Amino acid sequence: MAGRHSGTSTDHGHSHSHSHSHDAPDLAVGRLPKALLLAFLAICGIATIIGAVVLFPSSNPADRPKASFAAPGVTFPTAEVVKVLPKCPGSQTSDPDSTGAASQCAELDVKLLSGASKGSAAKIQIAPQTASSGLKAGDRVELIRIPAKGSFPATFSFFGVERGQPILFLTIAFVIIVAAVARLRGLLALVGLGFAGLVVGKFMLPALLQGSNGVGVALVSAAAIMFVVLYLAHGLSLRTSAALGGTLLGISATALIGLYAVHGARLSGVADDSSGILSNQVQLDFQGLLMCAIIIASLGVLNDVTITQASAVWELRAAAPEKPPPKPRGSAMRIGRDHRASTIYTIVFAYTGAALSV
User: Fold this and answer.
1) Torsion of CA 272, 274, 280, 285, to 10 degrees
2) What is the pTM assigned to this prediction?
3) Which bin fits 22, alpha (ψ -120 to 50), beta or left (φ > 0)?
4) Secondary structure (3-state) at 30
């Protein structure tokens, strides 16, 4: 009884010490693989810190790119829609000559809510597709105000619809659902997502704009994000460390394949109007920017594959510790093959959905 009680106490204490890692089953891991994994992660962590220090963008205003989004004096005031004028008669006809006429009929009556012309009314022409998107009185839009010059008064044109309110509602609903379902772990994942946004906004983009190597910036950013996101979302455990090691190796492989794809296919990195406008404003390595996009886009898939595969291996081995290693390993590989196949569909369908208009 004493021996049994002692064993129960030991098991309870051991389980409590690992309660932060999804209550993962206790799994004996050899010293050598554990040491190799932790040494690899330590080297990657040190390299990430050194890379962040070397590539961190300068805070000196003189080092920032000199570019402006609009001409001097141009502002972007907010306005409230008072009335949406109907389309011209015949705008739904298939006559190609009616397209131009329809574009002259879709207009908004608005009241300026900010800027130098606050309180005044204006009539703004909009594209037919914007008029048919459901705009109604009370909606808010953003305008472009070109200041008065000589005898010409200030003019206004349509810039976009303000979508802050629905996006805020969706964000709040998302946080509530995550908190209700995933609880603390889900909220920690959201904190990790916020950290990832800081890395992209405060490190990656400024470093690229100041001429840093695109691949180096992408690798440092991706590694920093994964170190924080994985441990926050899944806890400090050897299981998470194994997933992190696989993710870092996947990031390296993605960088190598991306380098070959970008340079082998002679991709410029300038593929749309936004990139074209940006290329005229700042001196930027667009191939490096494309490499960053490839590596950052791969993080979600890599994270999904590595953490679930690590969990599958862990659970299989813990469920049958008496079986020789080849049997759990074979089962894990079969799970991995199914996961890889489904991931291919995920990537292709995500791209297809994003590119339907093309």
Assistant:
1) -70
2) 0.73
3) left
4) coil
